[in-house]
């Protein structure tokens, strides 16, 4: 069993109103060092695949099929082997 | 006209659409998202709302509902497909219309009546807007109505007359203030404003009526040609 940790964010060219609102709020809280904020989505998906390569391929496939809209979003995937309990 | 209004889990403008279509004498039926055959209908309407809770992205899950295969098939045969608000979002996610609807530029949900310009009066959905003025008012109600598409797509939309409606002012940050577009062949339309909420004198706005008159005229003309 593998766990795919998938992070989806907007492409840099796409305006992220949530990120902008959070950035403004952080400025109000006087976090002067903050220069940009991007809000994304995080998924953990358990896969029955027995080797990491096929688990990664399945995670990539399902991400592109459903989790992102390729017009505006990009993603990165980290694979974890699930330790048997 | 036999019209289908698709009900996805979370659709909430389905009854408004049904009511409006009945008002124009359409033989209208609700069809669930599980249906796989729409061949009996002349036109299909994807109503506003929050299909599947708008989880993941607006329209992203509805796109894979069984009925969408039938909607694609209808579009391919040249029948009319109308997506209003969430319906527009579903049509873009399904790739039946280009671009994507994203969070409004100014944070939050907008519920308002806004001025719109009809930029193409030759379409199946706007041919009865025959008054000298091309500016109308329609209700909008959306949190994710900012139309986004790359430059090449936007240029193509303009060149082909696929931009049908634009906001008279910058309402939500949409590129070129685009509020509604058709596909290349002109039988599929998506728009964020709600013409179905503007068909009653009693409610103070009838600017949506020519939208329905247009598509009815289109279907009747088509039937006459085919007969």
Automatic annotation (TrEMBL), chain B:
A GO term for molecular function: phosphoribosylformylglycinamidine synthase activity
Role this protein plays: Part of the phosphoribosylformylglycinamidine synthase complex involved in the purines biosynthetic pathway. Catalyzes the ATP-dependent conversion of formylglycinamide ribonucleotide (FGAR) and glutamine to yield formylglycinamidine ribonucleotide (FGAM) and glutamate. The FGAM synthase complex is composed of three subunits. PurQ produces an ammonia molecule by converting glutamine to glutamate. PurL transfers the ammonia molecule to FGAR to form FGAM in an ATP-dependent manner.
Gene name tied to this protein: purQ
Biological process annotations from GO: 'de novo' IMP biosynthetic process
Protein name: Phosphoribosylformylglycinamidine synthase subunit PurQ
Record flagged with keyword Translocase: no
Species per Swiss-Prot/TrEMBL record: Weissella cibaria
Keywords assigned: ATP-binding, Cytoplasm, Glutamine amidotransferase, Hydrolase, Ligase, Nucleotide-binding, Purine biosynthesis
Enzyme Commission code: 6.3.5.3, 3.5.1.2
Record's subcellular location: Cytoplasm
Pathway given in the UniProt record: Purine metabolism; IMP biosynthesis via de novo pathway; 5-amino-1-(5-phospho-D-ribosyl)imidazole from N(2)-formyl-N(1)-(5-phospho-D-ribosyl)glycinamide: step 1/2
Active site: 85, 194, 196
Quaternary structure, from the entry: Part of the FGAM synthase complex composed of 1 PurL, 1 PurQ and 2 PurS subunits.
Stretch forming the signal peptide: none
Transmembrane segments: none
Reaction(s) this enzyme catalyzes, per UniProt: N(2)-formyl-N(1)-(5-phospho-beta-D-ribosyl)glycinamide + L-glutamine + ATP + H2O = 2-formamido-N(1)-(5-O-phospho-beta-D-ribosyl)acetamidine + L-glutamate + ADP + phosphate + H(+); L-glutamine + H2O = L-glutamate + NH4(+)
Matches recorded under PROSITE patterns: GATASE_TYPE_1 (PS51273)
């Amino acid at each position: 069993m593998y766990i795919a940790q998938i992070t989806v964010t907007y492409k840099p060219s796409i305006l992220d109103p949530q990120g902008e609102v959070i950035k403004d709020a952080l400025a109000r809280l006087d976090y002067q060092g903050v220069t940009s904020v991007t809000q994304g989505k995080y998924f953990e998906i358990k896969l029955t695949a027995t080797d990491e390569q096929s688990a990664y391929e399945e995670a990539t496939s399902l991400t592109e099929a459903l989790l992102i809209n390729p017009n505006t979003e990009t993603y990165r995937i980290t694979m974890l082997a699930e330790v048997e309990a | 006209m036999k019209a289908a209004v698709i009900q996805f889990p979370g659709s909430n403008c389905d009854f408004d659409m049904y009511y409006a279509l009945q008002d124009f004498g359409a033989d209208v039926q609700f069809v669930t998202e599980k249906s796989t055959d729409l061949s009996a209908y002349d036109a299909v309407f994807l109503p506003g709302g929050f299909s599947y809770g708008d989880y993941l992205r607006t329209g992203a899950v509805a796109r894979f509902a069984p009925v969408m295969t039938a909607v694609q098939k209808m579009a391919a045969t040249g029948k009319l497909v109308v997506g209003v608000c969430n319906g527009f979002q579903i049509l873009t996610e399904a790739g039946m219309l280009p671009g994507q609807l994203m969070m409004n530029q100014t944070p939050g949900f907008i519920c308002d009546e806004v001025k719109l310009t009809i930029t193409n009066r030759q379409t199946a959905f706007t041919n009865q807007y025959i008054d000298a003025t091309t500016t109308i008012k329609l209700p909008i109600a959306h949190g994710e109505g900012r139309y986004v598409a790359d430059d090449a797509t936007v240029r193509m939309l303009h060149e082909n007359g696929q931009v049908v409606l634009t906001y008279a002012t910058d309402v939500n940050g949409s590129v070129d203030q685009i509020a509604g577009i058709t596909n290349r062949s002109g039988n599929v339309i998506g728009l964020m404003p709600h013409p179905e909420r503007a068909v009653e004198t009693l409610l103070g706005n009838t600017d949506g009526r020519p939208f329905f008159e247009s598509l009815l005229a289109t279907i009747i003309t088509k039937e006459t040609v085919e007969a």
